[in-house]
């Protein structure tokens, strides 16, 4: 499975689509996430690369989110629990 989304997050790439709303982000526009989302506590709901709605599972110790095209991200990989 693709690891593109995980790689983009780890690299700190600017999202193309807003992870909370799925709307396309205009270039140069600043993304404002809720405090819990920016702290990695809240799972993204949309793939930031393609804007697809992701399959999200929230666990007691974190979350994982999967885009059918860009792969799976687990909050553990982001270094936060
Ligand atoms: Zn995607």
Textual characterization of the structure:
This protein is α+β, with helices and mostly antiparallel strands and 81 residues long. The protein has one domain (3-24, 33-77). The chain has 2 helices and 3 strands. It has a 3-stranded antiparallel sheet with strand order 1-2-3. Strand 1 (55-59) and strand 2 (62-67) form a beta hairpin. The chain is globular. Zinc ion is lined by residues 5, 47, 49-50, 52, 67, 69-70.
Helix coverage percent of residues? 10-25%
Report strand %.
15-25%
Q: What compounds sit in this structure? A: zinc ion
Q: Which structural category do the helix and sheet elements fall into?
A: alpha+beta
What is the number of helical segments per DSSP (H or I, 4+ residues)?
2
Overall strand count: 3
Q: Determine the mean pLDDT.
A: 89
Largest sheet: 3 strands, antiparallel
Low-pLDDT residue spans: none
List the helices and strands and how they pair.
Elements: H1 4-11, H2 35-38, E1 55-59, E2 62-67, E3 71-74
Antiparallel strand pairs: 1-2, 2-3
The structure holds zinc ion (ZN).
Residues 5, 47, 49-50, 52, 67, 69-70 line the site of zinc ion.
Task: Throw out a few tags for this protein.
about 15% helix, three-stranded antiparallel beta sheet, alpha+beta, about 80 residues, 3 strands, globular, binds zinc ion
Q: Could you give a short description of this structure?
A:
This protein is of the alpha+beta class and 81 residues long. Helices cover 15% and strands 19% of the residues. Strand 1 and strand 2 (62-67) form a beta hairpin.
């Amino acid at each position: 499975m693709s690891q593109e989304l995980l790689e983009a997050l780890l690299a700190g790439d600017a999202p193309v689509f807003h992870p909370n709303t799925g709307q396309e982000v205009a270039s140069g526009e600043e993304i404002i996430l809720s405090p819990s989302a920016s702290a990695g506590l809240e799972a993204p709901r949309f793939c930031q690369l393609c804007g697809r709605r992701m399959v999200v599972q929230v666990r007691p110790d974190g979350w994982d989110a999967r885009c059918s095209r860009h792969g799976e991200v687990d909050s553990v990989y982001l270094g936060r629990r």
